[in-house]
Amino acid sequence: MIDEERLGKRFAALARIDSESGSEALIAKVLEKELTALGATVMFDDAGDRINGDCGNLVATFKGNAEVAPVMLSGHMDTVVPGKGVKVIFEDGVFRSDGTTILGADDKSALAVILEVMQVIKENNLTCPPVEVVMTVCEELGLLGAKNLDYDLLQSKFGYILDAVDTEGIVNRAPEANKISAKVYGRAAHAGGSPENGISAIYAASCAIAKLELGRLDEETTCNLGLISGGAATNIVPEYVEIHGEARSHDPAKLDKVTQTIVSTFEHTMAELQAEGDALPRVEMIVKNDFPNTIIAEDHMVIKLAQKAAANLGRDMVCKTSGGAADANVFFSHGIAAGVLGTGMTDVHTLKESIVLKDMVHCAELILEILQIHATEKVAL
After folding, report:
1. Helices (H), the chain
2. Does 338 lie in the same domain as 220?
């Protein structure tokens, strides 16, 4: 029942609409019009005002015609840069850009799939559960849309986010993460005339960094320092440098331990480098939780529904663990178990990004089958 040609045309049309993070208003208006025509009640929250964007999150409610629990379907409206003026090329069943921009399959393939599924249901008067469509803003800027979503607009306790690659996998585990920043202060001096009067903030920071274990710490835990900036000129002993990094783990206790190790290493190193009676070098450590983890049991109905739908279609559906994050992490912390499904997008966030139309069709068929099973079999939460 999925109309492959219509799905492809819809995706291409959405991909051509500029919607870099913070500038989703134009695509949101198009989506609002289409969802309304399909019978949904569409609302926007005030997330845009709180994150300095031009649009809030879109929430579209379909009443359905089956007395079962509502299901959430979600994707994000924003893209990474460069995402303006996308020229879509379709050749041999594959969508690409012209190589000067990203394509935007992340995550406009999700938006196109959701619209196609709901249109098929309407056209064929199929049995359908209540569906809550959530299309978020600024996902690419650290899940900001989901973090600022008005959850009072939702009734769903489970659902699916279409924001992964594998069309035969469902992500049910994703890590928690902390953002970690170190601001190191030293003392400026002329590097040629009186370097002994200075205290190099860069040297002090380097001493601390050299003591840290970075990269993959174990199968559940990673740590990275990704940004460093400081100094004023080559002839000035640098008095300030800042380092920004992150730690991730599927185990909250491990995350806490790694985070504390980083903090204490910087603090102890500064103390070791201080001369008697001197308060420099010193460090200011800032730790902020970036996103919570996701752990959905393999016997949860969100998994069972996806697996049964896949089996009905003659396909596999395996549980997967991700090292990255999606809106699902934030939804999970608000009591919504959202499995992350793939649309087939590849090489995302690059100029080589592409997606095979058949993969989008497979994703749409899976979502349609999930909704049909839930509507007719009334699986209990």
Report:
1. 4-15, 25-37, 47-50, 105-123, 144-147, 201-210, 252-273, 301-312, 327-333, 357-377
2. no
